[in-house]
Amino acid sequence: MAAEQSVDIFIAGAGPAGAAAALKLNAMGVSCVIADKATFPRDKICGDALSGKVMINLGRIDPSMLERFYSTLWKTGVWGIRFVAPNAKVIDVPFSQTWEAGTDRAPGFVARRIDFDNFLAEELRLASLVDFREACTVDEVLRVSGGFEIRCVGGETFRTKIYLDACGAQSVFARKFAGLHKRDAHHAGALRTYYKGVTGFHEHQFIELQFLDPIIPGYFWVFPLPDGYANVGIGMRTDYIKKKGVNLNKVLDQLVAEHPSLKERFRNAERVDRVVGFGLPLGSKPRAISGDHYMLLGDAGHLIDPLTGEGIGNGIYSGLFAAEHAVDCLETNDFSVGKMRQYDARIRRVIGKEMHLSYRLQQMMSRAWLVNFLANIISGNKHFMEVISKMYTDLELRRRLVTPGFWLKLIVLKKLK
What we know:
By secondary structure, this protein is an alpha+beta fold. It is 39% helix and 24% strand. The protein contains 14 helices and 19 strands. The protein has helices at 16-27, 52-61, 63-70, 113-126, 172-178, 238-244, 248-258, 263-266, 312-332, 337-364, 368-378, 382-390, 395-401, 404-416; strands spanning 5-12, 32-35, 49-50, 75-78, 80-84, 90-94, 108-111, 130-133, 138-144, 147-152, 157-165, 187-196, 207-210, 219-224, 229-237, 270-271, 276-281, 290-291, 294-296. Strand 18 (290-291) and strand 19 (294-296) form a beta hairpin. Helix 2 runs parallel beside helix 9 (312-332) and helix 10 (337-364) crosses helix 13.
């Protein structure tokens, strides 16, 4: 058996959350070990959308890394969102009213996870203070005096003062130590596949969320990728899947083949990958995501947006925050629950309010008649479109969106015009 190695910070999982933590630590001059069971490049089931949060935080970690990201060719710039209501109303919402399409500085991107995660893995390999262990599976995490003992398959053992768990939605540690168990009302089931040759995209490559009758309160998505490919999927809250007895595989096939808004666009398209399923632990329920000597990052901490299903941006945020807090804990030599919960407080302050509002919007969107009613109000009205566009950067506006008075005011204004 290999000798036990002592480290200050051990990170399990080298996806966006774990990688962001390790890269931020490196930028701060602090060493760490990060382990992942895979050898990169490897695929990850996902919708592949990268929001503006991703670019903002890559730049905060290392501006030169952000420039390297912009120079890559495996991504598609995204300039807005196309919503389709059950009544077939189409609402195109640009992310900003002042963007310039066709540049490499899009507000968001779509990139296969096999490419984006490998980009982060390459950055880890370049980081001088990061000990990146690929094909290293964490087998057991044991609480010991002063922290945790990490036992890996193959015999390697680490003793660490701070354990950052970024093992994703299926994290055993998150369930065992933090008690983050699956709750159907705060969890979603989803399917993803890839197509080539889908037609009918917005000219500026908007991502699409289609709220269609068979799957409300879920949605069907189509996200454009380079070279004529598209990430296509379907997601729905788990409690509704069970309550309605929905077979997502069957519904996905039916929508592509028969739905009026989709069948012509997919008529000559080719499915180029198998359909795969995944679970999404949503951030709609506040949870404790830290304890003495540990923090949970990304999907392991149930930080997925309840409305959009976004996990990458929130995961990178959590990695950056966890790295900064870990350094503070080391400097003060304080790894207590009280100290660690400062990480939770920061997550709630920056991400938590947004996820709470997304949950309320998700609840609104669960009613087809209401979605249709709001689509009729917004459709074709330039002022309303500007208001909705600003929602993505204005949290106060998003708060107003979930109040009846906001919509009543818009209805009155529309009638006056």
